Amino acid sequence: MTTEVPSSSTERYRTVQESEEFGRLRHAVRSFVFPMTVAFFLWYALYVLLSAYARGFMSAKVVGNINVALIFGLLQFVSTFLIAWYYSRYAARKIDPLAEKIHGELSAGDTTDKKVED
Amino acid sequence: MQSHTLAAEVSTSTSRGLTITLFLIFVAITLAITIWASRQTKTATDFYAGGRQFSGFQNGMAIGGDYMSAASFLGIAGLIALYGYDGFLYSIGFLVAWLVALLLVAEYLRNSGRYTMADVLAFRMRQRPVRTAASVSTIVVSIFYLIAQMVGAGALVSLLLGIKPDTTFLGMDAGTAKVATIILVGALMIVYVIVGGMKGTTYVQIVKAFMLMTGALLMTILVLAHYKFNLSQLLGDAAQQSGKGDAFLEPGLRYGIESASASATFYSKMDLLSLGIALVLGTAGLPHILTRFYTVPTSKIARKSVLWAIGIIGTFYLFTLALGFGAAALVGGANITAQDKAGNTAAPQLAQALGVDYLGGETGGAVLLAIIAAVAFATILAVVAGLTLASSSSLAHDFYASVIKRGQANERDEVRVARISALVIGAVAIALSIFAQSLNVAFLVALAFAVAASANLPAILYSLFWKRFNTSGALWSIYGGLTAAVVLVFFSPVVSGSATAMFPDHDWHFFPLSNPGIISIPIGFLCGWIGTVISKEDDTAKYAELEVRSLTGHGAH
Description:
The complex is a heterodimer. Chain A is mainly alpha-helical. In chain A, 78% of the residues lie in helices and 4% in strands. Chain A has one domain (13-107). Chain A has a two-stranded antiparallel sheet with strand order 1-2. The radius of gyration of chain A is 23 Å and the shape is elongated. Chain A starts with 6 loop residues before the first helix and ends in a 10-residue tail after the last helix. Chain B has helices spanning 9-39, 44-49, 56-67, 70-83, 85-112, 117-121, 127-160, 174-226, 231-242, 262-282, 287-290, 299-330, 333-339, 346-358, 361-404, 411-436, 443-465, 471-490, 517-533, 540-552. Chains A and B meet through helix 1, helix 2, helix 3, strand 2 and helix 4 of A and helix 5, helix 9, helix 10, helix 12 and helix 20 of B.
């Protein structure tokens, strides 16, 4: 980065990184985004694999001309919308307050090194 | 319904005139916005990041405008119209991909970067080698994407304006019109970027997204109304008119084709999986998408903009489903392939058919056709402007300022170099597109996604989440993933050795798949890991800074 960070502030970042509070923030983020990524990827992979190898199942008609493949495809839309909505709710409740608190504490200590200009 | 050909004699001239008028109105409006934006563009932050003042909704629209290319609008509607269900597979991959951007990339990139993808990749690394690598991969991805879009624009112009091989338009035959279109599109994108910077480009994308969504919504409503909102009946008609029967509604007409040869079947199915993976993992590594996250004030708004983008893009792909099946049902497979074998005219043909039936006969058909054709041109312009901006930003901010000037460049020079870069990249893209116009370059979009997924995404994810990652790892993953994807495609049937190849008369292919992702993405991740562990560099202090800043937003630009 072009930002020059004095060594004192490097120490500060390390202290924050090792703090129990930041550990909770990291846990709140990682315990949500990693499993959720694995979940939606597997769900999508299942859909692609079924399209490739389970043609009979995907071709089964459910209502009129609407078959399993179409419903499965539309469910991918539904799951994408739901995951996006659920993540935004989760982030607002569990991630943002922690992130803002730590950010606030860090900024309070910013008096020595001036905030980098944009 | 009667068969409608795109160039129905009566309406051709009306429609052509109207298309051009509407397109000129779009150009006039966007140029006016661009000039206005140029007055607000004073600092580097204004030029690269639009002043970081866009709202979540505005940026969500702009992301949609940047992402929904002509390949998605005309291409996917055409794929669905000709191959039915398999076209839908494409749009699902393009949409699900946004979850990677939402969960793993957008907010952290916004918090820790400034103008380009390389800001995050080089955060805790040695600046010069990593920025060079990031710049190379940014430009490769963007140029591939640009050529595909511009050649596509050239091919579309004769179809959308109805210039037949033996006729002329304004004294130009179809071939000249193609070249003229490529030059016009190229010149406009250069102007948008040089004059308007990120602010101008963003507004162009917002206007385009609005036009595209409105046009697609209108057509979707007409299609659904035609079938009294009975989806099953629409599908049944589409299957029948496509000439493919029930197979039209099932996977397997285009991807994962089952044939008598067991190995051909195996490779075709592998190709389907490979494409599926590249689509989902590529989006969050596309430089012109990543730079969009810098145009909002905070990471929370970056998140909001991705949420809007998911809503807009998802809705749009649902529209294309209705458009594709609607075109199959109301225009018919035979009429579509008669216009364009690849099906790119399915959506405009459907517009004409719907206009004839619902908006007052031939004139209505000509009007709706003209609107959709103008939307298609607007779509191409907005996407190429985004690509040019992302690559010229990287050339100026990463290569010029950090590599050549070693971080000592002043802001004004940097922006000047960015503008010159836009001119150079635009000119190169125009030249390459004219050279490539007679070649089949449709595979370049898929290749751009494959490179983004194989080279950029591993480096971004390792940078943000892996403490041990270092300079060597970043270089290995970028160059390794990039080389793997490009080399595999070069030796694949899309470049040589098949009837639809870029060079159909030659054959040097030995890699059996058209899509390299299933091999090159794991190579990118593996290279990143190997490169990291063989190097001793392990800057835990810089990682502490990156991790704290990316998660909390402290010190964000």
